[in-house]
Every structure is written in C-alpha cells, then in structure tokens.
Amino acid sequence: MQFSESWLRSFVNPPISTDELSHQLTMAGLEVEEVRDAAPPFSGVVVAQVMAVNPHPNADKLRVCSVDVGTVAPLQIVCGAPNVSVGMKVPCALVGAQLPPGEDGKPFGITLNKLRGVESHGMLCSARELGLSQDHAGLLSLSPDAPVGKDFRVYAELDDKVFIVKLTPDKGHCLSILGIAREVSAITGAPLVVPPMPSVEVSIDDRLPVAINANDLCGRFAGRVIRHVNARAATPQWMKDRLERAGQRSISALVDISNYVMLELGRPSHVFDLDRIHGGLNVRWAKRGETLTLLNGQTVELDETVGVIADERQVESMAGIMGGESTAVSLDTQHVYLEAAFWWPDSIRGRARRYNFSTDAAHRFERGVDPANIAQHVDFITRLILDICGGKAGPIDDQQPNMPTRAPVTMRISRAARVIGIALDASTCEDVFRRLDFQFERSGDVVTVTPPSYRFDIEIEEDLIEEVARIHGYDAIPVRPSHSPQRMRIEREGERSLHALRPLLVDRGYQETVNYSFVDERWERALAANENPIRLLNPIASHMSVMRSTLLGGLIEVAHRNFNRRIERVRVFEIGRVFMRYANVMNQLSDVAGVAQPMRIAALASGAAWPDQWGMPSRPIDFFDVKADVEALCWGCGEMRVEAAVHPALHPGRSARVLLDGKAIGWLGELHPRVLQEHELPGPVVVFELDAEPLRQQRMPQPTETPRFPSVKRDLAFVFDASVAAQRASDVLTCAARQAAPGLVREITLFDEYRGKGLLLNEKSLAFRMVLQDTRSTLQDDFVDGVQQAIVEVMKRELGARLR
Questions:
Q1: Among 254, 357, 366, 765, which lies 20 to 30 A Cα-Cα from 49?
Q2: Are 81 and 139 in contact (CB under 8 A)?
Q3: DSSP conformation class of 199
Q4: Orientation angle between helical segments 253-265 and 177-188, nearest 10 degrees
C-alpha cells in the first residue's frame, strides 16, 4: 500500500512527526518499508502565467514568451515546448533556481542566457525537468486558479512524504487511506475525519435492469445510470497528484475517479459505457467455453468457477477482477453505468492468479471489502463524476440478496494476559476495543465483540488477543528473562552433527545445493518407483505437485541446468528430508501421522574424474571414484561394504546397495540410460543416496597396545569361478583367517584381479594380501603356514577355489 502523508493527514492528523508516525504504524503491525520524498529537492520555481507568445526571430521551433511571475514586470523567456500558449499557467524556474540533477547526475542551475541571440530570464518547466514524472512532451500545465508568483513547491505540496506500507494478508481493511486512518486514529487517539457522503439529487428516472443469479458469488449489488457526462474533462490536479503518489498513473477522468475512490475508501467499482450494454445485466457464474477480452487486451477462456457480469449477448466483465474491453469507457463515452458490489472473498480468491495476472480490485475483494456502505460510496463516486464530468444521475438500484453476517467473537481477559505475557485488566481491553470502534459487551472475564463489517480478519479469540497486543503496543510489552530452568544438553561424543558431513564432501570437490521438496510426480515414478507419493492439496505449480521421497530428482535437474550452460564437470550434493508414507508414525510436534521424514544425503558426479592437469591423463568418472567418496563419509561409522542390487533409477549391473555394519543405508551407482536420455545428460553420471542418521554415529577410538614384534605378510592368489563376487571371496577369507588366527589378523586387502592366459574363460584370479601380527611374540613360519593352509581349505570347501 502506497500513499502520501498529506492524503492520510486529511483523514487523521495526530500531532506527531513523520518519523514517529512511521514508527507507530510499524509497531502496530503495519510495517512501513520506506518513507521517501514526494518530489526531489529543487528551489527557485514559482507559478507563472504566459501572457504572450511570439515567434523567435532566428529559430522556427522556439518561441519568445512574456511571462508573469508575480513581479512588477513580466519576464522574457525563450521556450521550445510545443504546448506553450497564451493564458496557461506553468511552473517557471527563475534565474538562480536549482533544479534536480539531469541524466549526468549533476545539479542544473538556471542562469541568464541567450538562445539564438534572444535573452531568456528563466525557464518554463516540464514535469520531467522538475523530477515529478518522465513526461516531457510539453510544459506542465497547472490549474487556472493557481496563484501566480507562489512558490511551486508550496502550491503543489511537494514537501510531502510518500509512505510504502507492507501489509500482511489479514490486513485487507488497511488497503485504503480510510483503513490506514482508522488504524492511526486507534493508535494515537487522534480524531478520524471521514469525508461527507450526501445523497446525490436524482434528475432522471433511467434504470438498468440487473438480475443476480448467483447468491454465493454476489452478496450485494448497487448501480446507477449517469447520462450526458463529458468523458474528455480533465482530471483535477489534486486528484492526479494523489494518484501519482499512490503509484497510479492518470488515464482519464472517469477511470481516475474510480481508482481514486478505491484508494481512498477501499471501494473497487466499475464504470461501464452504457451505450455498449445490450439489454440488462446478469450476475452469474460463467459457462464453460465462454471467452472475454479484458481491459488489458488479454482474452481468457472462462469456466463454471469464475463469476461474471454479462448482458443479453455476451460476458462483459470478470466479477470483482477486471472489466471487459467491449464496454470500457472511452473519451467518446456519453452515458455510463456505475457499479459497486460485494463479492464473496471465496468466489474471487485465486481466480486472477489462474490467468497469470493480478488487479487491485481482486487483491481487495479476495480479502474482503465492506458490504455495509456500498450505497453511500456510490453516491460519493457519483458526486465526483458530476463535479468533474457533469451529467445527470438516476436512482440507485441496490440489491442485497445475500449479505454477510458477522458472528460475535469472545475473548477471555485472563487468557489474553497469559498469551501476551503482561498483566491486563478489563479496562485496558475495553479501551482497545473502543479505540478500534468495536461493539462489545463484557461479562466478568469474558468480552464479546461484534466485528465491524469491514473487519473480515476477526473470527476467533486469538484475533482479538492480537488486536489488544498491537494497539496496546508491542513496544509496551516488557522484555523479561525466561523463568524456565536452563539445562545444558549433553552431546554424545560419538554423535556428529549433519553440518560435519558437509565439509567432507566439499573437500572432495562437491558443491552443496538446496532444492524444492516439491517435485514432479513423474520423477517419483521414474527415480523411486513410487506409485503413491504424498500429494499436495495446493501445489505452487503443476509440475511440483508431490513431496519427494528421493533427493536424486533435484540433483539431476541441477546437473541438467549446468550441462545446458556448458559446464561438463559437475559435483553437487544435498542434505535434506524426504517424505514417505509410514503407518507407524504418530502425530507429534514435528511429525505428521502416517508420514516418515528421514534426513538423507545424496550426491551426483559427472564429467572428468579430475580437473584437467598435466600429471595424469583425463578419464571419465566411474563407479569406484564415487565409492571412495562414500567410504570417506562412512569412515569411523562402522564397516562399509556394497553389494550388487537393482534400483529403478540406476544402470543394471552398475548399481549397488550400500551397507553399514550389515544394515542397508542407501544406494550407489550410475544413472540408468533411460534417465540420462529423459534429462538429456551425457553419461556416465554416478550418484549415491544414503540415510544421514547412521552417518552421524561414529565409533569411539579404542586404545591398543603398541606392537613390539614384526608383522607377517602373505599374498594368496585364488582361482574362482567368474560368478563368485569379490566381496563374497573377501568375506569368506577374512572369516577363515580370524578363525585360524584369533586376534592376530590386522589387515586383509584385495590387490589384484586377473583374467586371461592360464585360466579358463569362466575363471578369474583374485589376489589378497594378509597381514598377521602378535603383540606378545614373534610369529613363526610354521604357525603362519598352518593358518594359510586352513584358509586354503575353507576357500576350497566354501567357494570351490584353488590356490594359484
């Protein structure tokens, strides 16, 4: 909401400064984002009248003007504006005046000058030269009653301030000068002055028949015929100034009057060209397939959920949102129909956004507009039209088929005191409600309030408590230390924060991303085989309609955007929640029944394994590069291993389940070629996704005795059938070694795989290095030979292996 301070003070004028007014509005919940000058600083500019205009002797496009600036003799000023004429009043910068800086940023001073040999004792100004607007088509024409010689800043009230207030959605009653003024009056106690709205004298009997066929759309509809208006009449300068300082540009007198009343009283209205209406009007829900060309030139297709005003031939307006082009007023309009209505907020809410635009009227109607004083506001608008454009007004046709009723709301004073945290008595609460002009009754501890017709935000007890808190003053609520006992949380030494996982991946070349938790339903099917995702009731976009059960979709989308920008080497990760159906979850402070929300950590890597360098040849990243990153995350959390398994998003034969101490915690592998094709990604792309909680649990280091005796190393190469997995062979060998030499096995490592000459086509050779060490004595060869022989026997028996 944007408005000028002088406009606000014409309704309520508390004896406080601009800064104090801004502060008090903010502390009452109406956040003032900015207070700026209505016009840039300049001096030496007065109201002047052009007395004579003569041709310039040496220039065709210049004129020599005689200008009355309130001095003894008129001044001679050379002017090139095309609209300069005898008798017009304009702002004139005298010699010595300082004007706002130009495009070069330097101040502009007026000096005695010669233009093509003719002296000029000043400059007649356009709006842009004074910094008032970008209009430089001609001189700024002033009202005929502007006093000649008066300081132009004083005359135009340019020392005014412009307030920009950020309103929360529940403050729909503050979307007008009157609404803001009510708040200021309640906050400061200054009297509220509402402009008089006397009934307009009816001089014609003309009526336009209106049928209301949708009571759930329109609760009240009022309108009147006004004939013989002058649509070409000029909008008064005072109205233009107020509109411009409220962020509205002047269009024409009829449109400006409608916009002015909407800003001043919060009453959106619409002016139809009466001659373009066929028969009467019908207020109804649209029919599927109907179309309407709006005032902004956009043609929209309507359906049964959109309210309209139609005549006998076609739809003429989207109810409460925007009028149609076919009945819009123009400079040739002679007869108009003025309409003002109460549209139910639920019937307007969200309709404009569906068509990708927003209007001031819809913004107000979807929050609730006062239905009680429509007839008075129609009279007020009519009076402005008659005063500015002339004409004759017919009677008001006021229909009230479904007026809203405001149910009383009760508030317990004791509960208000408990919620706000201060001592409250009945007199304080009653004073707040009186200042807000609420009708109320008190019985003991309970106050029953009947909300005014313009306060659609007062529905429950908490709404009244909020009103008490903000009018009493948030800054009047003392800051007190907490009385609850403070206990230090004991941090488990073996539990690390999720924040500790981020540097581990950043150090390995990954960058963190943060993606939406709302994803495309197709992603859930393709990447997680989730046929029943958790759907959103009100998605922010059609392609973000379900909650994610995997982090891979967001990472793939990030990679896709990077590849489109020719970034071929990508390393990204995300730590975030996923959302899955799980019947055992109950409603708690941070949980929703039936929905599990575990934390996951996922990463994606593609492109070269290393940045380009001279020390090693370039190669694409592979499964084992990313497996090393997973091992770095799992280090210290238990024994990590992988086993081949199938995942819907991963490449068959290049995917694995990640286990930690034998428990599955996630997946690792290359993306499936189908996924690469759908997202237009060059392969290979390797990803992993792990449960974050197991990675937080670290084992505490255990002390061991420093060995005093040498270790023994033995290399064992076995020949296996090609179908035997290396992990399986390593597990059997490790188990056999620990049984044969309890407490002596220090390390078992797979260091070679061989296929080829000397082996059958269906055979492979795996070589393991075994390290044994005793802390009490030196191991003897015969003992080690026995251990080796026991291992060979087990490998032969369990896996059919032979020593190579």
A1: 254
A2: yes
A3: P
A4: 30
Q: In the predicted model, is pLDDT for residue 590 greater than 70? A: no
Q: Kindly report the pTM of this predicted structure.
A: 0.68
| Residue 783 and residue 790 in contact, taking contact as beta carbons nearer than 8 Å | no
| Angle ∠(196,199,204) on CA atoms, nearest 5 | 150
How many helices (H) and strands (E) are present in the chain, helices listed first? 21, 41
Determine the Cα–Cα distance for residues 178 and 264; give it in Å rounded to an integer.
6
Cis amide leading into 684 (omega within 30): yes
* Helices 726-740 and 781-799: angle between axes, nearest 10 degrees: 140
H or E segment to which residue 765 belongs: strand 763-772
User: Among the residues of 550-649, which ranges form H helices?
Assistant: 552-564, 623-634
Question: Distance between CA 566 and CA 263 in Å, rounded?
Answer: 50
Look up residue 204 and give its two tokens.
């014609």
Report how far apart, in Å, the C-alpha atoms of 371 and of each of 24, 389, 417 are: 29, 27, 33
Q: To 10 degrees, the CA torsion angle through 280, 285, 288, 289?
A: 40
Q: Residues 467-488: pLDDT tens digits?
A: 999 998 888 888 877 777 777 7
Reported as half-sphere exposure (CB side, CA atoms, 13 A), residue 441 has a value of: 3
State the chain's mean pLDDT as an integer.
Answer: 90
Contact 215, 402 (CB under 8 A): yes
Contact 146, 70 (CB under 8 A): no
pLDDT digits (tens, 9 = 90+) for 149-162: 999 999 988 888 99
E-assigned strand segments in 420-514: 439-443, 446-450, 511-512
Closest-CA residue to 241 (of 543, 39, 481): 39
pLDDT over 70 at 589, yes or no: no
Report the distance separating Cα 310 and Cα 323, nearest Å.
11
Report the alpha-carbon distance of residue 441 to residue 450 in Å, rounded.
9
**409: β partners:** 449
Residue 585: C-alpha distances to residues 57, 548, 588, 590, 600 (Å): 92, 18, 9, 11, 18
CA distance linking residue 359 with residue 361, whole number of Å: 5
Strands (DSSP E) found in 57-201 = 59-68, 75-79, 89-99, 108-109, 113-115, 118-120, 123-124, 161-166
Cβ neighbours of residue 742 under 8 Å, at least 6 residues apart?
none
